[in-house]
Amino acid sequence: MGGSDGEIQQESTTLDSQTEFAIRIEESPVDSVSDGETQQESTTSDSEPEVAIDIEESWVDSVRSRVNASFVPKWRKESCTIFRVPANLRAVHPEAYEPTVVSIGPYHHGKVHLEPMEKHKRRMLGRLLSRRRDVDRRRHEDALRECLRKVKALEERARSCYSEVIDMESNDFVEMMVLDGCFLIGLLLLTKAMMMEVEDEDARVVWEGQKDEEEMHYNSSNLLTTVKHDLLKVENQMPFFVVEALFDLLVLQPDNGPSASISMYDLALTLLKKWNPSCDPYTATINHPKDEEGD
């Protein structure tokens, strides 16, 4: 028994010595390599000189400007109502989203194939200004000034309706809104006269003007059908409250004849009835924010 205990004790001592030696062997190379790598990295780091890089301030300002421009103010996001069509949908059928003859609003404004209708829009504005009973040449200019001033006051709200930042100068944007809004008003007045089969000179003179060949081209039924399709396209829109403000200035006046007794809502619903006979103008509604600021 005694011999057995001695052997066990000796064997245990031998195992402990072997284990300790093995651990020292395993740890030693790792520590050595680690120390060598650290020393090498330190030497390399010390040997690399720092290079001074100058950044031009104008470049920094340019980058900062583009970054800031990518942010959309909170008020704009909340009132955005007119959107771009997603690229994947547009790619399937681009013609379904591109206006053919007339642009309304900024998304397609200035495209070459739509330019001919811009001249007709200016004629339309002139006729709306002229139809006011009290307008002579001087007051004609005053009426135009009123329109520009009114839409200028609504510019920020109008821009906020679009999902993209509109890259247009203020005066150009306002002029576009006035021309496009008056074009829509003239179209609405003509539609009312045609539907009700009444001789409303105020409405007819706005659209028809002089009976020259060019004017007859714009009044042709085929072209009007194309215009109708363009006005129903998602990207070809403008804020209703802008058109309504122009209507109030140019049409809804006590001395402006029979059309002065109708509202912009009635005209819009009349147009919907003309284009879609299944639409009941007495139950249809137009949802748009009222002018809370009293413009």
TrEMBL record:
<feature type="region of interest" description="Disordered">
    <location>
        <begin position="1"/>
        <end position="51"/>
    </location>
</feature>
<dbReference type="Pfam" id="PF03140">
    <property type="entry name" value="DUF247"/>
</dbReference>
<dbReference type="InterPro" id="IPR004158">
    <property type="entry name" value="DUF247_pln"/>
</dbReference>
<protein>
    <submittedName>
        <fullName>UPF0481 protein</fullName>
    </submittedName>
</protein>
<feature type="compositionally biased region" description="Polar residues">
    <location>
        <begin position="35"/>
        <end position="46"/>
    </location>
</feature>
<feature type="compositionally biased region" description="Polar residues">
    <location>
        <begin position="7"/>
        <end position="20"/>
    </location>
</feature>
